[in-house]
Amino acid sequence: MAIERTLSIIKPDAVAKNVIGQIYSRFEGAGLKIVAARMTQLSRAEAEGFYAVHSARPFFKDLVDFMISGPVIIQVLEGENAILKHRDLMGATDPKKADKGTIRADFADSIDANAVHGSDAEETAKVEIAYYFPALNVYSR
Ligand code: RTP
Ligand code: MG
């Protein structure tokens, strides 16, 4: 199976709940390595740019408002089948529909405040990693 990289964000609700370590443990437990990471509070322009594909959707403004409401932790995860593995760990977008034991089932409150983001395909992972880590200060090991 291919070694992949994916872009992960711990959203403001999960940072505020103080569950960063518990979420990192799940990544590590699944064999995903954190190869780049930073904590930041996104500007409106950064959040709008990141979610540009959703700009015409009715939830766009709420999504951007939420993503800039507090600090986030952004990381690159690396491992076998990392993109799908990370999506499986996250669970469905709506925490009410997320499988038991997933990050969203355990830590998210609503479809808006849903704890985490993860790239959904190889191409989007590349674009999203370059968006937040343009210098590619990524540490493989
Ligand atoms: P993400 O991009 O955050 O990993 O989540 P996802 O792929 O599961 O969901 P996506 O369709 O890409 O939507 C991005 C984020 O927008 C919010 N959303 N709200 N109110 C709504 O109907 C709605 N739909 C999506 C969610 O916070 C979702 O994570
Ligand atoms: Mg998505």
TrEMBL record:
**Enzyme class, one word?**
transferase
The protein's location, in the record's own words, is: Cytoplasm
Catalysed reaction(s)?
a ribonucleoside 5'-diphosphate + ATP = a ribonucleoside 5'-triphosphate + ADP; a 2'-deoxyribonucleoside 5'-diphosphate + ATP = a 2'-deoxyribonucleoside 5'-triphosphate + ADP
Q: Could you tell me one molecular function GO term of this UniProt entry?
A: nucleoside diphosphate kinase activity
Q: What is the lineage of its organism?
A: Bacteria, Pseudomonadati, Pseudomonadota, Betaproteobacteria, Burkholderiales
Which residues does the UniProt record annotate as the domain Nucleoside diphosphate kinase-like?
Answer: 3-140
Protein's UniProt name: Nucleoside diphosphate kinase
Family affiliation: Belongs to the NDK family.
- The active site consists of 117 (pros-phosphohistidine intermediate)
Q: Which residues form a coiled coil?
A: none
Please give the cofactor(s) recorded in the UniProt entry for this protein. Answer: Mg(2+)
Q: How does it assemble?
A: Homotetramer.
Entry-linked InterPro entries: NDK-like_dom, NDK-like_dom_sf, Nucleoside_diP_kinase, Nucleoside_diP_kinase_AS
User: Mind listing the UniProt keywords for this protein, alphabetically?
Assistant: ATP-binding, Cytoplasm, Kinase, Magnesium, Metal-binding, Nucleotide metabolism, Nucleotide-binding, Phosphoprotein, Transferase
Enzyme Commission no: 2.7.4.6
A single Pfam family, by name? NDK
